[in-house]
Every structure is written in structure tokens, then in C-alpha cells.
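Sample intake sheet
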Amino acid sequence: MHTKTFYDDRTFTLTHLVWDEATKDAVVIDPVLDYDMLAVRTFTESCDKVSAAIEAEGLTLLWVLETHLHADHLTGAQVLKKRHGAQVAIGARITEVQEFFAGVFNLSELPTDGRQFDRLLSDGDLVDAGGLQVQVIGTPGHTPACVSFHVGDALFTGDTLFLPDSGTGRCDFPNGSARELYQSIRKLYALPDDTRVFVGHDDQPGGRAVAWESTLGAEKAENVQLTANTTEADYVQFRTERDATLSPPRIIFQSLQANVVAGVVPRAEASGRRDRKAAAGVSK
């Protein structure tokens, strides 16, 4: 198994391209569609880099895998699906997230059964990606729909677990739960210590160079928020108090409305515009 990671310094997001060298079968985890807030437009610089690597390695992209509904960047899933014929999958509890945000954004026509995705994934599922077998591990807490992907000796954790000096994901998004996140990470900690961990974001604490790979052994020993010895009560108290001080992501409204439908752009209105909506009670 080979991996190539792409870093988007606008959103601190890490996208992972994973492939089997023998068969050239590949998956992409958490791709980014770039968004210019001032010009109010999307562009495909991040997806272009992923596509270039797919073509350079002669890969067949079979799946785009989302670890969760992202609130800090737009997904590039539809771009890669159109270019490479891949299918798009996300955790099955995305239906809960869709139901919530259909009300927040007054999206009365939004189907909330997950049909916008090609497959909904549950804990214990296997995704057959030709030469790759991807095991799905349900890891709710940051959001209800969070999943991690176990491929060979590697674990792709999205926003559930970050590098040891960065900690864990926040739990103050709708239906998030610090208690659930604690239990999810404890489940990951039961895997072998030499399991490689590939994270979904890196905000480079202390100004260090960008990084994205750790091991479960290092996480259990050194994670600044949740080691193997951290109690549930202590973690829940810490996470709750810290989350109360955090601001929302800069493009949360744009991201949520795109990502809740697998990255499909809004339907054109009578004027021809494809506007995003503000949340109920929040000014644009």
C-alpha cells in the first residue's frame, strides 16, 4: 500500500491518496474543493493536484471516502467523481446530520436519506476497492457521522484524532458528543500500537512544519488531550470547557450546505443564481 498526502494551507486540511502498487487501485480520503470567500467562487487547485498524482501513477480511482461532514472546507468529491468515475461514500449517520441542517437552512426539498452519496457506511463494513480492502470503524463524537478508515497498517482518522501535539476534534457541532468521542478514540486505541495514524488536519502548533502521520502508540502515550490514561470524566470536562471558547470555522455555512449533499452545487433559482443560504436567524 502506498500513500500520498496533500496539504491545503487555506483550511489546514489533509487529503490522502491511497493505492495498491500491484493493481493500481486507489481511494481518496477527504478531498478539498477550493473556495474564494471574497470572489464567492470555487476552484479546483486542490483536486487538480490529486488528479495529477492519479494520472502520474497510472491509478484507477474507485472510491472517494469522506470521514465526516466537514464544516471548514468544501468537499471535492464531485469533481473527482466526474473526472475519474469514482463512487462517494460517507458514514450512515449522515442522515441525522441532513435532518438537522435541513431545518437550519430551511431546505424543505432536501432528501434526508443519504441518497446523494453512492454508499452509506456503518461500523464494521468493508469497502472493496479492488486491491485495497478498507475497514470502516464508526467513530462518532466530533459529528454523529464520523468514521475512520483502516487500510492495511494505516488508520485514517479525519477529525476524530489529530497528531499528539494537537489532540482531538471539537465536539460542539450539532449532535456532537465529547463522551462519544472519548469512547470512539478508546476503540481506536485498542488497535496495535504500531498502527500508523493519518490525520485530517494539522494546524502546526508552535509554528512547526506541517505533518500528518503518527502511530497509535505515540498517540496513547503523548496526545495532549487524551492519552491511554485519561479518564472519561476528565476528557469530557476538558473538551466541553475548551469547545466553549472556540469560534465557528470561517466558511461553515458554505461548507455545510455543499457537503451535506456530497458536494453538489446548489440548484439554480429562477434568477439563475446558485446562492448559499444563511442559517435561520443569522445574517448573510
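Comment: The chain is about 25% helix and 25% strand. Residues 2-246 form a domain with the Metallo-beta-lactamase; Chain A fold (CATH 3.60.15.10).
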